[in-house]
From TrEMBL:
The keyword Metal-binding does not apply. Its main location: membrane. Pfam families: CBS, CNNM. Residues 247-309, 312-370 form the CBS domain. SMART domains: CBS (SM00116). The keyword Magnesium does not apply. This is Hemolysin. It is a multi-pass membrane protein. Residues 396-428 are annotated as: Disordered. The chain crosses the membrane at residues 48-74, 106-125, 131-152, 164-187. Keywords: CBS domain, Membrane, Repeat, Signal, Transmembrane, Transmembrane helix. Residues 1-32 form the signal peptide.
Amino acid sequence: MKDPEPRPYTLTKTLSILTTTGLGLFAAPVFAQTEATSAVASTTMNQDILLLIVFVLSALAVSFLCSIAEAVLLSITPTYIAGLEGVSPKKAVLIKRLKGENIDRSLAAILTLNTIAHTMGAIGAGAKANAVFGSAWFGLFSAIMTLLILFLSEILPKTLGAVYWRSLTTPTAVVVNLMIKALYPLIVVSEKITRMVTKGRDVHVFNRDEFIAMAHIGKEAGHINDRESRIIRNLFHFGSLRAQDIMTPRTVVAALPQTMPIEHALQYRMTVPFSRIPVFDEDLDSVSGFVLREDLLIAQTRGTGHRPISELRRDIVAVAATTSLSNLLELFLDKRQHVAIVVGEYGETQGLVTMEDVIETLLGIEIVDEGDKIEDMQQLARKLWRKRAESLGIKNNVQESRAHASTESESSQNRKRSKRLVLADMQS
């Protein structure tokens, strides 16, 4: 039989067991609470990461949509809308309303939604990034977020919208229309503020200089050829030119007295190259009409060459020297005339202008009649006039006339050349 353990030892062992048991009972809840806290912290961290991703992606996606819609909307041209009216009238009406009539509302809706996306994204993503990464990494996250917004929600979508705007026009119109309806109260406030700033001033889409520049750009890009570009540019300069800018000056006009016999007129070298010859009564200030070279030839073959050319005379139109080329062309077409006398302020004859001169100015090329062998008939007129003056022995007058021509005839001729041909080749 074993001896009983000493009382002190028994007491000590008992106290040890009780102490261990008590500590265990006390520590169990503490460890359980620590494990629960770790689980809660892990769950919270996962939620923060998920919300961070949601905030970042939502901000980028909405901003991407707004940027591409803005680029597409601003890239739509009036000519595209006009062409769409014949293909899809309903789409054309919607696009025209968003692009033209309600462009302020469209831009206000896009910019409002884009600002909301950036603001909410920055606040939400910033808060969750601070919770996930801590304040030490918050600066790096902000830099990365800025780059993502710059490239993924600004540069990339606007480039895509500007390049592929034709195929994105219809879906963009639908999305922008929904934006306007969803953000209508904010848009109304924005409109009132905008009207206060602009004071109701209309914004013109294009001006004349921009059309001329577009013609040059179209030629450089290969969309139109050189001649088409030249005609477009000349067309916009057409209204600024006057009859006196393109006329054949008086000093080199080949004209005949109306009493001259037909056979003599055909022998007159200065008139042979021209198809329409002015005729006058006393001098060039009393031009009474013109004759056709073909009529003179027909009369000669019929044996009536001895008769005066006044019998073949046709009426001629008189126009003021300041008549614009657009009005002059309209006059030629309405009157079915090809030649006109240009008169000054006091009714004096200043020169001769033809429909060919007007069309040449517009097209930038010389028009040659079937019977003409020389392209520039005005240059030929000056040559013949100088030869005639020299043959009559009036050389001094030739020099004086050349000086006069350099100030009157040459300046007018140079204006024609510079504004018909140089304008055709000048760069806008």
